[in-house]
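User: Sequence for Fasciclin-like arabinogalactan protein below. Tokens please.
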Amino acid sequence: MINQLVRPFSLLLLFLLSLSITTQAQTPAQSPAPSGPPNITRILEKAGQFTVFLRLMGTTQVDNQINNQLNNSNNGMTIFAPSDSAFSSLQAGTLNALSDEQKDELIQFHVVPTFLSISQFQTVSNPLRTQAGDSRNGQFPLNVTTSGNQVNISTGIVNTTVDNTIFTDNQIAVYQVDKVLLPLSIFGPQTPTPAPAPEATKKKKAAVADAPSSDDTDSSGGVGLAVNVMVVVMSIGIGMYAAFVL
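Assistant: Structure tokens for Fasciclin-like arabinogalactan protein:
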């Protein structure tokens, strides 16, 4: 009787044990949290959709600069990362027309050398100073306004918004923007070269007009030589006449 009761119980235990083992095998292991200091390249690669921005950061070596700053400074950093679709909306040939220096300035214009959370955008002073240069001279203005939790960005040429928070850890904040931030110094209207003053132009024309030409010089030289010859001939003639008379 006891054996009859034990056998079903043993089978039940074996079934539950095998079910537990199968369930554990099917449960995926959790990936370990990333270790070490933040790395902008790994952050954007993991997020995806930022291949053009990553390529420009690599060719200008801004990615290495950012990582070095993060490792050697306590100021933190804020990066506005345009997606691939943002770059595709630019006119064809826009990036190829830029010099190496302009490409570097373009990428640095997307980097603010302080950490800014979404809530801190409500109290920042405009224009923001970016790593492209000082904004006070009007070359690299970056102005931020907020409406609730929405952050609006203006460069004087482009108006866009922060679409998404890609990464933040109180040291670096990376935000996705739906347009490339175009600075005035590169993409704004170029100042034409000033025309010379009218008075200076008149003086230059007068100086050119008064200057003797090579033809005039040759002509005056020839006339002077002919006159001298005639004077000599006349002098000789007069001398011979006087000697004959006397």
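The chain is about 50% helix and 15% strand.
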